[in-house]
Amino acid sequence: MNTSLSADHSARMQRVRLALEGIALGDAFGSQFFVPKNHPLLERRQAPPPPWHYTDDAEMALGIAEVLDRCGFVEQDELAQVFVRRWDRDMYRGYGSGAHLILNQVRSGIPWAEAARSVFDGQGSMGNGGAMRVAPVGAYFAEDDWPVLVEQARRSAEVTHAHHEGQAGAIAAAVASACAWRTRGIPLAQRRLFLWQKVLELTPRGMTLDLLESAHALPLDADLELVVYELGNGSRVLAWDTVPFTLWVASKHLEDLVGALWTTVQAGGDIDTTGAIVGGIVVLSTGVAAIPPEWFAARESLDLEGTHPPRAPDSYF
After folding, report:
1. Distance in angstroms (rounded) separating the CA atoms of residues 8 and 196
2. Closest CA to 261 of 30, 99, 61, 83
3. DSSP states along the chain
4. Which end of the chain, N or C, is more open, meaning fewer C-beta atoms within 10 Å of its C-beta?
5. Mean pLDDT of the chain
């Protein structure tokens, strides 16, 4: 046992497990609507048939949880190796091309910081991957001082996302996750106000923050098409075209996990990733009881140790 772990490590990991349930549910639920035969189910809000397999979004979140459980913080060298091990064992979970390039380099012995900077003409990734997996960080550090949480969120993204926008997206999503947990039990309007206050205060300057400010300004009853027009829906797989939209949805449905996920998938775009981000935030508000039993039964069980046998490449959707 790691004796340097905090006295409340077990309670922290219970929050992490809750975040994982939400990420995996949103990821697996959203991914089912990439399947054309399930498109008609959207109009009548009918859940797709099982099984629902999660993708790289939840797989990488599980890797973060593994490191937090072992180390009590985001140990970046350890996280890079856990990401590589899980990817190498089961690389057909929908990883993006940038992730394949970075993780393959790390597997070959290139330091993760060098590999993360090598993509996108040396800029590093400004994508939404840091945000999709960060809710466990928000959960683990939810009751710590804000600078601690912000730094741990940044570190969790930096292993694969060297660009500051990719890190900013992760910070915003982690802060929102922590706010969802911290504000349970107070009136909903106050919860939303606190969430936006902290997200706008703590997210670093840049495009992601600019769009978060736009998201905050949109009314919660705005037409979904307008919201997507103003904020994006992850179609560009960028932090600023993903995270502001997901935080608008999470704020709108902060106490309604099922409604949050239906709104997310009806917006289209990168719906496994937007589902993962929204699910990871909102479940920390609602608790696991908000997940319908039949949805739990449909979703693939969490591979906490990274030991489940890999599936065939064509069997995830």
Report:
1. 28
2. 30
3. --TTS-TTHHHHHHHHHHHHHHHHHHHHHHHGGGSGGGHHHHHTT-PPPSPB---HHHHHHHHHHHHHHHHSS--HHHHHHHHHHHHHH---S---HHHHHHHHHHHTT--HHHHHHSSTTTT---BSHHHHT-HHHHHHTTTS-HHHHHHHHHHHHHTT--SHHHHHHHHHHHHHHHHHHHTTTS-HHHHHHHHHHHHHHHSPSSHHHHHHHHHHHS-TTS-HHHHHHHH--STT-BGGGTHHHHHHHHHHTTT-HHHHHHHHHHT-SSHHHHHHHHHHHHHHHH-GGGS-HHHHHHBPPP-TTS-SPPPPTT---
4. N
5. 96
Residue with tokens 């936006």: 196
What's the pLDDT at 1? Answer: 46
pLDDT for res 24: 98
Instruction: Output the CA–CA distances (angstroms, integers) from residue 6 to 69, 88, 99, 144, 304, in the order listed.
Output: 11, 31, 32, 12, 21
Longest dimension (CA), the chain: 53
pTM (two decimals):
0.97
Whether residue 316 has pLDDT greater than 60: no
Q: What's the pLDDT at 308?
A: 77
Residue 190 has pLDDT above 90, yes or no: yes
> Which amino acid is located at 267 in the chain?
A
Neighbours of 94 (CB within 10 A): 19
Q: What is the pLDDT of residues 27-83, one digit of tens each?
A: 999 999 999 999 999 989 999 999 999 999 999 999 999 999 999 999 999 999 999
Looking at residue 305, what is its pLDDT? Answer: 83
Closest of 207, 287, 220 to residue 247, by C-alpha: 220
